[in-house]
Structure formats: structure tokens, C-alpha cells
Amino acid sequence: MKILVTGGSGYLGTHVRSYFNADDLSRRSGHDVLSTSDTEIAADYDLIIHLAALLDKDPDAADDVFETNIQGTINLLQNVQKDAAFIFASSKDVYGRFADNHAEVPEGCRTLYAGQTALEWSKLNAER
After folding, report:
1. Of 84, 114, 107, 74, nearest to 3 (Cα)?
2. What is the pLDDT, as a whole number, of residue 107?
3. pTM of the predicted model, to two decimals?
4. Which residues lie below 8 Å from residue 10, measured CB to CB, with a gap of 6+?
5. CA–CA separation, 128 vs 122, rounded Å?
6. DSSP structural state of residue 48
7. What local confidence, expressed as pLDDT, does residue 75 receive?
8. Are 39 and 78 in contact (CB under 8 A)?
9. Which long-range contacts (CB under 8 A, 24 or more apart) does 22-27 make?
């Protein structure tokens, strides 16, 4: 099984990549989820673990956060082969004040605005 980890050069990505002996798609490895030519390699993998994200909560970075986290996810999904698995890392913070009401957040949990940053909203949009 061929496995690709996006963001495989970050703290979590390094460990996930090592555990699965997976390939890396990250800026440190010379690739970027915003590059449609770089994300074409997703078609060669049986499993894509998508950890790549711009994690900046600064309001001035909102445009870059939305572009990286949503468009980067779209670029990958457009190249995933039909029978491949795609694992997307998000954040419980997309559920705002409702997240702490559950030990395990259900799929139907409400996502009303409760002060979330562009990071959380970009993750929610990418999930959808």
C-alpha cells in the first residue's frame, strides 16, 4: 500500500510518516498543496493522510489560511483515485462552544459561530 502524508514535515506529520513509512508532500520537501502540479501525485497513492494546513490564527492571515486549507484540500481531492482512502485532519474547534459538550463529537454537532478564527472555519469548509 502506497501512503502519502501531506504536511509530513511537521511535528505530527513526521511521526505519522515514520510510522507508516509514507511519502511526504510538504513545503519542506519542496511540494505545496496549493500547486496543482504537485498535488497530481495524490493519484499514485492508496491512502492520503492530509495534515497540511496553515495554522495561523492571526486575523491578518485569514486570506492565506482559507486559501491553503480549502484550496489545498480541493487540489488533493481532485487527484485522489476512486478506491483510495483520504483521511482529513481537522479541529474540534470547528464546533465552537458545542465541542466540549461531547466526549466524542457527533457528525451532526452544530457549528454556530462562537469566536472561531479563519483556521477553524477553513477546516470546517474543507470538511464539507
Report:
1. 84
2. 75
3. 0.86
4. 26, 51
5. 10
6. E
7. 97
8. yes
9. 22/49, 25/52, 26/52
Apex CA 76: angle with CA 18 and CA 109, to 5°?
90
Cell of 90: 481537522
| Main-chain phi, psi angles of 87, to 5 degrees | -110, 125
Strand partners, 85: 47
Cα 66 to Cα 68: distance, rounded to the nearest angstrom: 6
Successive 10-residue mean pLDDT values, the chain, 128 residues: 92 93 93 96 97 90 92 96 92 73 76 76 78
SS3 90: coil
Report the distance separating Cα 30 and Cα 118, nearest Å. Answer: 26
Q: How many residues does the chain have?
A: 128
Q: Where are the alpha helices (DSSP H) in 21-117?
A: 36-39, 62-66, 72-77
CA atoms of 43 and 120, how far apart (whole Å) = 27
Are 94 and 79 in contact, with CB atoms under 8 Å apart? Answer: no
pLDDT value of position 125: 74
Q: Scanning the structure block, which residue is given the C-alpha cell 457527533?
A: 106
Angle at 47 between CA 17 and CA 89, to 5 degrees: 65
